[in-house]
Amino acid sequence: MVCFGLLFSITWGAGCATTGTSAGCSDSCGAPVAPTPSAPAAANKNPALKGNYAFTFTGIKGNGTISSISAAVGTFAADGAGNLTSGELDTNGVGTGAALIAQAFTGTYTIDTDNRGVMTWDLPAGAAKFAIAMTANGNARFIEFDASAGSGTIGSGTIESADTNAFNTASIAGDYAFGVAGLDNLNNRAAIIGRFASNGTGTLTNAAADFNAYGTPHTLSFSAASYTVQDTKTGRGTMNLAFTFGGAPANLNFVFYMVNAKRLLAMERDTVTTATPLLSGVVVQQQTPSGGFTDASLNGNMVIYLTGLSNCGSGAMGVPKAVAGLITAGGTGTLNLDFDENYCHAPQTVTGFSGTYGVASNGRTTIALGGYALVAYLASANQAFLFVSDSNVLFGLGEPQTDGPFTNGIVKGTYAGSATDPASFGVTVFSGEFTADGVGTAGNISGHEDVGAPSGSVSGEAFNASYSVSSSPTNGRGSMTVSSGTGGNAVFYVISATKLVALSQDDPNPAILVFEQGSTATTPPPAPTVTLSSLTLNPTSVIGGLQSSTATVTLSGPAPAGGAKVALDSSNGAASVPSSATVPAGATSATFTVNTSIVILATSATISATYNNTTRAATLSVLI
User: Which of 8, 226, 310, 352 lies in the 20 to 30 Å Cα band around 110?
Assistant: First the structure.
C-alpha cells in the first residue's frame, strides 16, 4: 500500500521493497514495531468523545494461509474521561464462535492532543484494540490495531453520535435507501442495494432492490419485509427481507443499531455459507421528491468511490480493486465519467467516458457506460448507493460535489482520514490526523497516522506530502506525492472543502481512503432529533354532538426551545380538531380536544398529527 506513512494513506504499498521499517506497507515491508498507538495520559482530549454512539466495523480475519470476513455493529457510551460503558455489539463471521448476539462490553480510550487516540474493548475472547481519529462533527473513524506476525483482523469502521430519543420502532418512518456488501465463507463477493418505505409500525412496503451475487446481477422481487426495534435503550433492532431471485425464494435477516431516525447501521446475522454472504452497510432516509425521482435527480457532479475484488490475468484470484471518479450528469439521461482505478498492479486514469442513464420514480437508476452496466438507488439528488454489474462486484457510494472550480485552496485545514472496507487480508489500514496548507499550485500536507498491517501495527508514523488540485480536465481531481518516509503516488477527488476520497496508484492491495474535516476543538454531540412517537384518543368512541374526545400527542423526547408545534388534521367533518397543538419546551406531550357534530349515521374519522416529518394517526368512532 502506499506506505504513505499513510495519509492519503493510501495506506498501500509503493516502494516497499527497499525499506525495512516503513509503516503502512503490504507484505514486502519489514515488520513494524510499536504494538499500540501512544497517547499520553497527562495531556489528552478525552472530552471530545462523550455521549452515546453507534458504530459499524468490517474486516478480514486471517492467519497467513487463510482469511475470512468479519463484521460488527453496536453501541456504547463514552464518559469523556476515558471509560466506555453500556457497550453492546453483534458480530458475525465464518466459523464457530464468530457470531455474538447483543454482547455486553466495557472498555477504555484515550484521545491525544492531536485528536488521534486508542480504544480497547473488553470482549469474551479477549481485548480488541483500535486506533481512532476524531472528526469535526464529534464522530470518529477507526481501525483495528492488534494484528501481528501475519495473524489477526484487518478492518475499519465509523463511530457516530447517536440520538437515544429515536430508539423506538415508531421513529423509523418514511422512505429509506440502503446498501450492503461483503463476502461469503469462500471469500466470494456480493452486494445488495435498494429501497423501501416504513410505516413506523414494523412493516416495510414498496421494497425494491438489486443483488450482485458473486458477479451475477439479479433484480429482487419482495414477498415480505419487516423490522422491529427490540431494545429502546441501545437502539438495537432486527430486520427481515424475504424475496425471490433467480426464480427461488430466499430471505435475509439483519441486525441494526440506530444512529438516529434517519440512519441505521446494519449487518446480516445469518450463518455465513456459500449461499449466504455476510453483508453489512447502512440504511438512510430517502429524500424522495414530490412526484418521485426523475432523470433530473441526476444533474450536476457526483463523486463516486467503490471497492471490489478482481481476478488478474496472471491467475491471481480475489485481488482488491478500488475506483474513484466523477460523474457529470445533465439531468436529461446522458452523463460523463472520469475515473481512476487500481487493480492487478495496473493503475489507470480514464477521462471522457460517456454514457446514458434512466431514473425510476423510486430512485432506482440504471447506467450504461460502453459495455459496462451499473445500478444505483438514489437517497437524494446526486447521492446514491451503487454497484457495477460484473464479476468484480464493485460497490460503493456517490456523493454530490459542491460547486467548483477547485484549486489547492479548497484542501486546507485539518482532516481525519482512514482506509475503508478492506476487501482482503493483504490490505493495510490506517487512521490519522493531517493538516493541509492550501498553498499555491503545490500544497503541503503533514500529520501522523496509526497503521494496522498483518505483520504488525505502527503508532504515530509521521507523514509529509505535496499535493495539487485542478479543475481541469476533471473538476476537483488531485494528485499527491509523499516526501517523508516511504513515498508513493496517489489520486484523490474533492467532494467539498470538508471531505475528499483517495486511492493509491501503486499499492497492489488498494482500498478507498476517506478524509473528513478533523476536530479542532472539543465538539459536543449534535442535539437529538425529536420526532412524534404516538397519537392517542380517550375515549375512542363518542356520541356525535354530545361528547368529545381528548387526544394526546407524545414526542420521542423533550420538546426543543420554543416548543414543538404539531400539525393536526381530521379526515371527516363530523370530528373537528385545531390546526395545531404545541408541546411546551422540555415537555414530551400535549393534549387537545376533538369536538364532534351530530350525525345521522354512525361514522368514523381519522385524526392525524405531524411533526418533524413524522405522522401518527388514530381513529375516532362517531355514533348516533
Answer: 8
